[in-house]
Amino acid sequence: MVRTRIAPSPTGKDVHVGSISTGLMNFAWAKKNGGQFIIRIEDTDQTRIVPGGEKKMLETLEKIGLHADESPLIGGPYIPYRQSERLTIYKKYAEELAANGKAYYCTCKPERLDAMRKKQQAEKKIPKYDRHCYTIQKEVKEEIAKGSKFVIRLLIPDTEVTFTDLIRGTVTMTGSNLDDQVLLKSDGFPTYHLGVVVDDHLMKITHVIRGEEWLPSTPKHIILYEAFGWEIPFYAHVSLLRNPDKSKLSKRKNPVWTSEYLEKGIFPEALLNYLALMGWSHPEGKEIFTLDEYVAAFDLKDVQTTAPVFDPVKLEWMNGEYIRKVQNSKLKVQICEFYKNELSESVVEKSIPIIKERIKKLSDYLPLCDFLFHPPSTYAVDMGPRKQLLGQASKKLESITDWSVKSIGDTLMEACKDSGLKTGEFFMILRVAITGKKISPPLNESMEILGKDECLTRINVLIN
RNA sequence: GGUCCCGUCGUCUAGUGGCCUAGGACAUCUGGUUUUCAGCCAGAGAAUCUGGGGUUCGAAUCCCCACGGGAUCACCA
Question: Do the strands A160-165 and A169-174 form a parallel or antiparallel pair, or are they unpaired?
Answer without folding.
Answer: antiparallel
